[in-house]
Amino acid sequence: MEVSEVETVLPVQDAEDPLAKFRAQVAAEKAEPRNTMSESALAKLRAIREQDRLDDIASARFKTALSQIVVTPENIRTLVERCNQSVPQPADILDRMAAKLGYQIAAGFELGREIDSVGTINFLAGLTPDEAKVSADRFAREWDGKTAAKLKQSRLTRGLISASDDEPVYRPCKSGKKCIRFEKRKPAPAKGNGDYCNSACAASDKARQKRGLAALPSDSTIH
What we know:
Elements: H1 3-9, H2 20-31, H3 39-67, H4 73-82, H5 91-106, H6 118-125, H7 129-133, H8 136-142, H9 145-157, H10 199-214, H11 219-222
Helix pairs in contact: 4-5, 5-6, 5-9
């Protein structure tokens, strides 16, 4: 085939690249130096991240501390009062806030689980204007223990909480009436899988047992 025939078969390509303009723009953008943060901006970002880290640590510690609180009316009252130190409340208002928070706990909202921050505590314990003004009898009727127990059972039935999340079975400290945390005519609960409420109580009970054995008569005394 002659050269003239090949030229008629193959299309003649344009000498000018139709995408050259766009390629040039992309190359120019790549050649431009990237925008970088100033040293002051980087310092602020590092400070924010560090504060977030410290806040997470403090939140975890507070959550752990809440889970270790023994739920009694006195302890709940103290907790509510401490969470409102920045805006002190009258004694009667604190009493009602504590009663309302106690209701929520009795309904299955546990300290250290759902109740895990100061904000949550004040939200659940917060009073509406009507709740702050009603009579003590009416307030007690609206936030009574029987209603809380029904709500807790409803949460269990609906699977919102499981039986394993419920309060553990009470195991009294082996020291009995000699328990150093004996209160309201019963010893404190045994800690974990042990027999005593704490190591001090265990040591005291074992010391009493040794003294009792030492006081027993020997064989020579009996005979």
